[in-house]
Amino acid sequence: MRGKNYKVRLTLEEREMLLELLKGQANKEKLNRARILLKADCGEDGENWGDKEIAEALYVSVRTICRVRKSLVEEGLEATLSRLPPARKRKRLKEGEE
Fold first, then answer.
1. What is the pLDDT of residues 80-98, one digit of tens each?
2. Contact 66/51 with Cβ under 8 angstroms?
3. Which end of the chain is more exposed for a tag (fewer CB within 10 A), N or C?
């Protein structure tokens, strides 16, 4: 994918939290996001896999990995795992307004 390349750098505490999450029970999307982040981590303890390698190993698209990376960098770990809606708010149009 062209465009920005978002680097994933997790702290030791974040890595431990993600590993604990994988041992417990959570929904499929949350677990996949945790796995993606652990594989994409380019920090000291990270595995630093490429997007194509992660996609093949976890059976997800490269685009999904790019979105997870972007979400982590722009919105933080909790928002990435929980898939919280973006912070921006859209103004609703009322009938007759444009």
1. 999 766 666 677 777 775 6
2. yes
3. C
